[in-house]
Protein 1
Amino acid sequence: MKLIEIEHKCKEIESTKRQLEEKLTELRKLESKAKEKTKEAQLLEEIAKLRGEDYEGEFELEELTQIRKGVKSYQDKIENLEQEAYEGLKDVAFDIPLEVPKVDSQGRSIIKFGGEPCSCAVGFVASTLGSDAPLELDKTELHSDKIVINNVVEPAQVIERLKILRSNISRLARIALQEKDLGVEEVADYLHGSDYREVWEAIKGRKRVSYSDLFSELGLTMSKEKRKVRNFFTNLEHLLKDKFPFIRVSPGVYELGFFGSLVWKRYCDKYHLEKETAKELRHEAVVKAPVKKEEKASKMSSLNKYLGSDEVKEVIYGKEVS
């Protein structure tokens, strides 16, 4: 589906959300009114009993029932429209010029969209990742009216990065539709079952994180405790290779890549970890009791099967062990 078609779909979603908010405001007012009516009816019922009579007053306004039906109708419509938008994003097509892209002296290529800006569609994609527009996906920026490719030297690289952008958006849409992505699923499961779970959760899906951030987040002061944070990154990169969720920016500083953002999203959905309330996580002690040899062997066997290799090693506190 063309991005501009998804833009129109997203505009309809926004319009329906505004209508839903109006209906919810109306519902809240009626519920407050109904609450007062209910209290009044309960008092009258007690008086009726004292009179030896039955009270036949209504406890709920008919209008309230209709408003609730209207709210449900808008909610269903939004859900259906969002599903249609995600289905379109699975095979998204960009309205870009049919020409060889140019690369400027700064190693950047700017490719403008034809037609109207797609601010709603780009915002929709960004919000799915819990981000804001313009959306940056691994050095590629998606704006409402253009795509900016950074750190390239020739047109072939630009085209390859455009293909990766399209593939990433498609992957995001599949995740949003609860369609399983084997790589994302396996890494999320591995992180949840690993000894580094508390470090991963302490990152909370932030775009950039440093060792010092995590030392502070987890309240680590001792050198031995801090090693676990360092080894989280070094071991994970060694074990997961091309499925490593981060990009190393500088010594001790990492950025969560696009794949990593998908892993975080799936992790939160699957293990009921809300990004907004992640700061309330219980910070368990980082240093745990040593893992039994047979347990370590079992974990490594499982990961080897996933990675398709019998030669994977894990680095524990800077030392390789078979």
Protein 2
Amino acid sequence: MIKCFGFLLFICNAGIVLAADREFGHPIFRTFTAHDYGAEVGQIFAIMEDPQGRMLFGYEDAILVFDNNHWETIPTPETGFIRSFAADNHGVVWFSSSTEIGYLSRIDGRYGVVKVYDGPLGINSRIIVDGDRLYFTSDAGLLSWNNGHMSQQPWPTDSITPFSSAVCHGKIWAGDRNGPIYELDGRSFKKIAESPPTNAGEVRAIVDCPIGDGLIVRPSGIFRKIDAALVPWPLAYNFLQTEE
């Protein structure tokens, strides 16, 4: 009887403790509305945490900044929707939209926008940081920013998927809708892997990984690059396989 009473007392105490702990089993989420951050309801396509711990959200003609206490709006006139963010190795935050490339400059405690490029990039524009160099993908080719100058390297084919570009083994790789992988070697692209004979769909992402020479994500699954071939990764292939 005493043991039974002791057990019931333990259960009651545990219930009181868990009731007092609102986070037990239920993470606390904070929801912010357009009223909170002072903007119209709209879409956000890019999010990042800057080197100072602030959250940046790409908006239409603006970047929203949240420091865990206050919201700040940085106007980016005539940029359209911000599509990509990245911080270079000096901690400078860069952004790109479908028509603009620029970076944020901190002056007198507030962010300001410095634009460095104006031209058609496409909705799949993204930023790639490779050491001291910055690359920006566009529908027409790969743009490179170096010492204040922008240059462009055309894609090797018209079917490149710009959003698949990534740094892999210290080189810029890009895939196309038919499956092959290309590598930027100096000032030109060369094909380094051929698509398997089966139609596995376009290259959607490239991941630098110690498994094989890298991982390639396609609609039908994940592939390993082994030498010049793309080989299905059996553990993930069946799990990710979808209908075309």
Protein 3
Amino acid sequence: MSIEEIQQQCIQGRLAVPEAVTLIDGSLGGITRVEYSEGLNFKIYNHQGIFPLEVKGFSRKQLPRLHALAVLSYLRAKENKSNFLGGVHISSRASTKHHLDGIWDIADRYKL
């Protein structure tokens, strides 16, 4: 299954978010970096490439799962001891740069 298919299965609720992150991590040989900007881009990196994922066209009910996928992927890159983690910016209340409390709230709802 491609990471795009994993993302779709996760957003649709057919895969749990932690399971989707584990599948993506395994299929890429390790997540090393994540860049997520709300409504603009979602990219997951490994040691060999960049893998863009969809950020548009999701319903309001699906957005929390998309946010969780970005956050847990970022935390997996951190677990993988990556030096350049990237960043996740969801809102002015949830960002890895300035608002970590919002990031931890999302992570706590969808444990790895």
